[in-house]
């Protein structure tokens, strides 16, 4: 009986460490890119799609596991101050469910397998000469986001990098490996998606602000402070709304706007709440972080449903 409980606990620990719900922010844009290839070029290769999205999942897995390993000290401090589902890590390592070093090895294994998939796609399935390059961008930025000594998260540009890697990159890569080129419509569509995921990362840094500052983790919020962080979050939200409207001029179906209106309303509610100081209360901030992810997924989902 004890053995069964231990196995169950270990499996649960690995699931928590891997954060399956947070994979959706990378998978949906990739699905959108493949959908665009089908709708705009009437092409869809199932094996290419399956291998491609598998590589995306592996890169995200590597990113999350390396982040847990290298952000250990900040996460410990954060968990002592308060607990949040959107900050402070998965809380797996302090409970010793899984050895901390295991996360580093699984991170390395994940990017290795993702790299092999890239080789198969480019040279085996002939998906185009830039396949490995696009994958390498995701691999490098994902693995070195938290990994020392590069540690992009402390460069002050980490949030912008996430906007690229979870915005433009998966949409463009999915479209490219299906068609062999990148349509200009992707740049317009990727803007609001990239801006909303930028905001997800920025707002998720609010609960961790005291711990990150104490540990010397110099992300954008630590460098600029809470007051400026609120201003940036609000400005980027408004820019995302504008970008969505502008994308309609790039041959995006107009019904995307109707689908997006509830998402924009939700985004506006979050902005008003943040400007009114609701982020200062941990319980309110956790709700806002959850709704903020819904804004990102809803933005991508609006495009997906519009093209379907």
What does this structure look like?
With 308 residues, this protein is an all-alpha fold. It has one domain. Helix content is 76%, strand content 0%. The chain contains twelve helices and no strands. Helix 6 runs antiparallel to helix 7, helix 7 runs antiparallel to helix 8 and helix 10 runs antiparallel to helix 11. The longest helix has 31 residues.
Summarize the model shown.
By secondary structure, the chain is mainly alpha-helical.
Structural features:
308 residues, mainly alpha, 76% helix, globular, disordered N terminus
Q: What's the tally of helices?
A: 12
Q: Residue ranges: pLDDT <50 for 5 or more in a row? A: 1-5
Determine the fraction of residues in helical runs and give it as a percent range: over 70%
As a percent range, the share of strand residues is: under 5%
Q: What is the count of β-strands?
A: 0
- Order of helices and strands, N to C? HHHHHHHHHHHH
Mean pLDDT: 89
| Largest sheet properties | none
> What count of domains describes the coordinates?
1
Taking the alpha carbons of the first and last residues, their distance comes to: 49 Å
Radius of gyration: 19 Å
Principal-axis shape equals: globular
Structural class per helix/strand content? mainly alpha
Please outline the helices and strands:
Elements: H1 2-18, H2 24-41, H3 46-70, H4 72-81, H5 100-124, H6 131-143, H7 158-179, H8 185-215, H9 220-224, H10 226-247, H11 255-275, H12 282-307
